[in-house]
Amino acid sequence: MKAIVYEETGASSVLQLQDRATRDPGPGEVRVRLAVSGVNPTDWKSRAGSGQGSTKLKTPKVPNQDGAGIVDAVGPGVTGFSAGDRVWLWDVAWGSDEGTAQEYAVVPSVKVVALPDDESFDTGASLGIPALTAHRALTSSEHGPDRLSPGSLTGQTVLVTGGAGAVSHAAIQLARWAGATVITTVSDDRKDGLARLAGAHRVLNYRTEDVVAAVNAAVPEGVDTIVDVNAPANLESDVEILKPGGTIAIYAANPGESVTVPVRESMGKNIRYQFILTYTVTDGQKQHAVESVSEALAAGALRVGEEHGLPLTRFPLAETASAHDAVEQGTIGKVLIDVAPLT
Ligand SMILES: NC(=O)c1ccc[n+]([C@@H]2O[C@H](COP(=O)([O-])OP(=O)(O)OC[C@H]3O[C@@H](n4cnc5c(N)ncnc54)[C@H](OP(=O)(O)O)[C@@H]3O)[C@@H](O)[C@H]2O)c1
């Protein structure tokens, strides 16, 4: 089979197309034939390493956490899946040398989720990192819910920063599905249009508008939860527009960045700061996220493509290095790799 492999960290040129043997799934494992691999910032960051030059890996790795395809074989003890099932995958390369930039991946069955017949592999390959992170962010308030469902956020207002990003796009769609009023911020007109297509009720251009004044006017009592892609820049204004007892969910920062917390103002509002790394949430939080995302998917609430606010940019498997570069360079929307033409 064809696989993209890297044996040392570094620039995208470390990614090499190789022919490799497939292996049989062991106990509790599923072998999946990949149709589409989804690329996230975490994939190029892992491949690039710490930035201190190249580091030789102990064992070769296949990149990319997210993907979708068809079950090819199931290992001993696996129930609920059989060959031919359409599935999406999450966190494949976390703690493993397997990734989704290859024709077949052997994955623990817990990371394999049914993909409805009427949902595309493109959608399936866009869920893992973005939607599971977004679910955790939207359920990090102490007032609950700990699992999203229709109506679970009714009456709540959520602010999602950077509304045209992949995680933000998922957060807007999940929050809408759960019944929240959704406000989002973006940096330009193109992203404004995309955030509206994703379903945001109100979109603010943070470069040209006074976000604090606009949100305070629209929601005088304050927003319940802020899903923040850039807390180091936004924290001060977040505190001003958050409701007492509200939550700021922080899931991104550039290397070495810190946030400065206005302590007295945060105390005064009893603000909760929730830091999130999707790989290390609890098993229960991950399970809730997978269940809710599956439910939202089945309800048609999670959509990808330009018309739904998440343009798709595609690369063939052999050009995985270019796909990584495209994500690193900030391509708007979702970058996907066509691994094999499955139906
Ligand atoms: N902690 C976790 O578990 C977790 C999970 C997923 C992603 N992440 C991280 O979250 C970030 C966003 O991921 P994504 O997949 O949503 O990326 P994306 O699709 O490239 O979206 C990033 C969006 O964030 C906004 N942004 C704000 N500050 C930024 C900055 N300093 N650099 C780049 N974009 C910035 C941009 O919107 P505007 O131009 O409108 O500001 C951009 O549209 C990445 O850093 C990623 O590594 C973390």
Automatic annotation (TrEMBL):
This is Alcohol dehydrogenase zinc-binding domain protein. It comes from the Bacteria. Transmembrane segments: none annotated. Residues 41-64 are annotated as: Disordered. One of its GO terms (molecular function) is oxidoreductase activity. The keyword Cell membrane does not apply. It holds the Pfam family ADH_zinc_N. It comes from Pseudarthrobacter chlorophenolicus (strain ATCC 700700 / DSM 12829 / CIP 107037 / JCM 12360 / KCTC 9906 / NCIMB 13794 / A6). Residues 10-337 form the Enoyl reductase (ER) domain. The keyword Repeat does not apply. Gene3D superfamilies: Medium-chain alcohol dehydrogenases, catalytic domain (3.90.180.10), NAD(P)-binding Rossmann-like Domain (3.40.50.720). Keywords: NADP. SUPFAM superfamilies: GroES-like (SSF50129), NAD(P)-binding Rossmann-fold domains (SSF51735). SMART domains: PKS_ER.
